[in-house]
Amino acid sequence: MVPGLEELKKTELPKIKKEIEEAFGLLSPANRFERLILEVLKDYTLNQEDFLRPVLTILGHRALEGDEEDVRKVAAAFHFLHASYHIQDDVVDLTEERKGRPSFWKRMKGELEAFGHLKDHFTYSIGFIGGNIAKLLAHRMVLEADIPSKRKQRILDLIEEVDLCANFGEYGELVQTSLNPSALAEKDILRVYECLTRYWIYGALAAGALVAGENGEVYRDFGVPLGVAAQLINDLHDVFGEGARFDDIKEGRVSLLVWYVYHNGDQKATSALEKYFGRERLSERDKEEIRRIFIESGARDYVRERARELIATARDAIRELPIDPDYTEAFVDLTDLFSRELPH
Questions:
Q1: Could you tell me if 93 and 79 are in contact, meaning their C-beta atoms sit under 8 angstroms apart?
Q2: Could you tell me what percent of the chain has a pLDDT over 90?
Q3: Which among 1, 148, 277, 317 could bridge 221 via Cys, Cβ 3.0 to 4.6 Å?
């Protein structure tokens, strides 16, 4: 019986985590400071809530009838890659907490206080160092996989592609915070989203295909739109989800919600939203007003519909995937997972 997405996650996750633990076990820190950053990084990597990326690498491999045991090393590589982006993104945004746990740089700041005071900008730099170590471990996992060298090179080329795109996405997002949203086109916003999320679905699945000796491109038409949909869903949860943080508003990020108000809302809505844009402290009344602006301007419904369209595009692409038909249900499960995440 072919496992569905949840069953695959249940059976493979312990094995992927074992690969991650073994990767840290092979490192030889020379002193207590090196040991400390590796211990914190190991804890951070193993205790991230989201392990979807590595499971998708397994799925992308098995669906193309791949049977390489060391696909799990490549799956672990994509988890290290995911961790590196979270670590460095939290430094860029000065985020102290992610999903109820201290961000990496915040945790390091606390640990290093035992040795004396550390200036904030040095702490942020250590955050970037931690992200770089995670990325180097991703490369090491691929190089140590027992697969043909040509396949390894193609996987490393894929990592280079999605990593470059992720950096362009981060760069684009930062530049856009300095611009008036009315000066941006929708395609500018969506380009940033595509770059930030290319590794999320497409990259992880494509890596599995490459381990099997197949072309990773077969997953692009499925994975890219689903990744953008996932980002739109994150935007909606940031304002309308349970425990909404309003990070995009506080940090002055031009999400598609914000873009829509500036391009389709009236002057009153735009002026009202400008009052809150980039403000670090928001009262509950402020948050309710922001929600009202997004609802009455039509921004919430527009973004929700764009996410639905992209999920539908991904679902339609399943029919064209050259996969073992028995795995079709797992890909449908993935689209359903994101559909259920859409806030009502």
A1: no
A2: 85
A3: 317
Q: Which CATH superfamily is domain 1-147 in?
A: Farnesyl Diphosphate Synthase (1.10.600.10)
DSSP letter string over 46-105?
HT-S--HHHHHHHHHHHTTT---TTHHHHHHHHHHHHHHHHHHHHHHHT--EETTEE-HH
Give the single-character DSSP code of 298: T
Task: Classify domain 149-344 at the CATH topology level.
Answer: Farnesyl Diphosphate Synthase (1.10.600)
Task: State the Cα–Cα distance between residues 56 and 273, nearest whole angstrom.
Answer: 38
| 46 alpha carbon, distance to own chain's centre | 16
Dihedral sign, Cα of residue 203, residue 205, residue 208, residue 212: negative
Residue whose tokens read 């770059």: 195
H helix and E strand count, the chain: 16, 2
Give the residue among 179, 196, 313, 198 at the shortest CA–CA distance from 259: 179
CB neighbour list of residue 295: distance below 8 Å, 6 or more residues apart: 301
Are the CB atoms for 207 and 219 separated by under 8 Å? no
The pTM of the whole model exceeds 0.90: yes
Do residues 103 and 87 lie in contact, with contact meaning Cβ atoms separated by under 8 Å?
yes
Share of the chain above pLDDT 70, in %: 99
Report which secondary-structure segment, H or E, holds 114. Answer: none
- Give the start-to-end residue ranges of the domains of the chain: 1-147, 149-344
Listed as own residue / partner, the contacts of 32-38 with beta carbons closer than 8 Å and 24 or more positions apart are: 36/108, 36/111, 36/112, 37/108, 37/126, 37/129, 37/130, 37/133, 38/133
**296 Cβ contact list (under 8 Å, min separation 6):** 269
Q: Are 108 and 40 in contact (CB under 8 A)?
A: yes
